[in-house]
Amino acid sequence: MIKKLAAYIGEYRKDTILTPASVILEVLLEVLLPVLMASVIDHGVEAGNMNYVIWMGVVMLVVAMLSLLAGTMSGVFAARASMGFGRNLRKAMYDNIQNFAFRNIDHFSTAGLVTRMTTDVTNVQNAFQMLIRMFVRAPIMMVSALCMCVSISPRLSLIFLVALVFLGCVIGLIITRAFPIFDELFRGYDRLNASVQENLTGIRVVKAYVREDYENEKFCKATQNLKELNVHAERLVVMNQPVMQFTVYSCIMLISWFGAKMIVLDGSMTTGQLMSLFTYTMQILMSLMMISMVFVMVTMARSSAERISEVLEEKSTLTNPQHPMMQVNDGSIVFDHVNFSYSDDKEKCVLRDINLKIQAGETIGIIGGTGSSKSTLVQLIPRLYDVLDGSVQVGGRDVREYDIETLRNEVSMVLQKNVLFSGTILENLRWGNKEASEEECQHACQLAQAHEFIEKMPKGYHTYIEQGGTNVSGGQKQRLCIARALLKKPKILILDDSTSAVDTKTDSLIRKAFAEEIPDTTKLIIAQRISSVQDADRILVLDQGEIVGFGTHEELLKDNEIYRDIYELQQKGAGKDE
Question: Is pTM, for the whole model, over 0.85?
């Protein structure tokens, strides 16, 4: 996992290498300072040689400035490397998500993906910065200081050996107990983000049903759970600080006691050496504290790294063939004994033994009860999902033989949930064709019966659409999405219940425009109202994932009981409305 994530350092390798190099120079200069200080005390101050003191003072100042410069540069390089690493991880995840099939996206929650691209990447990024800076600095500083301590007094250096063993055991205990908690903590962030996202997306429904108190309670439970996990984790991590301080002060007291005896009783140590020993003691113990902090951060980052790796390693269930077809001949569609399930379980098929032949340019209505898999059927045409058994053919070739982008460029689909993006109306329309002129956009809107209401807006086609299209009505949003689909000039146009929010007259005008302006385009119209599809060339009736009728309006009224029942119920409803 570490090797795979390290590959995303990319163009920031130079900064990654320069950071530890700068740190090593900084550490060596810092280790040199106590040696110079001891020399000043022993050969300058005690001997009364002020010229020596002044000269060594200048040398120490230069060494200190060089150390400061090296430390500054290491900070700059580490910041570049870590931020670049985080950028590459986010970009790689986002790029991979864009290639996901619907089946892959269903595997991850939206909130989970957001947490992975924000909180998790930040944790890994911070851990990476600490690794290339502190985790290089601390061991080198500790080893260098230990070597200097041993050269001054091998006997006193045994104190550090005991301290190292003690601290190693404590850090190991903290890490092994904290990791499972951090793992659960980040899943708690997923739940919290999901709660916020769901509330903000459905805020109008929440207010309409006066469910603010319920939503507040649900959010409070998520935050309370997160707080408890954080407190539990911090209880373990915070133990690191007092243990470190206890070790530091114990070592200082022991070195002071035994060092003073060695100076006074047998003269085996000088005052300058004891002062140097104190400095090295602090360097060793500060290095240990840094190492413990890095281990704690890496423990947090390990959970995040695993979650990031899940996204990066997820492979799309839809892939291009080795030699894909780059052209769709026409808009003919064939379903040949198609079975489909959202899982790989054949016992849970939502479409069963679908056999269907549609000629290019035909208008096909699709009708059926809720849950009859009408939307699922049409999503197989642009290969948003792959069939479990059988085949779907477009233009005489299996859709799995086409380049995915080529196929989808020839199939325009207006989904049940109409989505507009923040930007002007023109910018939204040009999702269908980024090179479309304003005149082409206007013509598409005229076909979709959207031109009239757009012209009444303050800035016309340059009116800004808020995020999610909140400043346009449901019917206006549907018509804009239809116009956007028409700009692709597709061979197949799929309208998935996309005129449900418009009145009957507008619906009729849209269908009339389709018949006159795009006669060669195959049109599949899913609708709840029979009036929306009764003029179609043929109508497909679905019931519980199976075809139970396929023919003209008159044929189905005569021979198909389900279609006739729907028609009669709607006619009675229309009569009552009148």
Answer: no
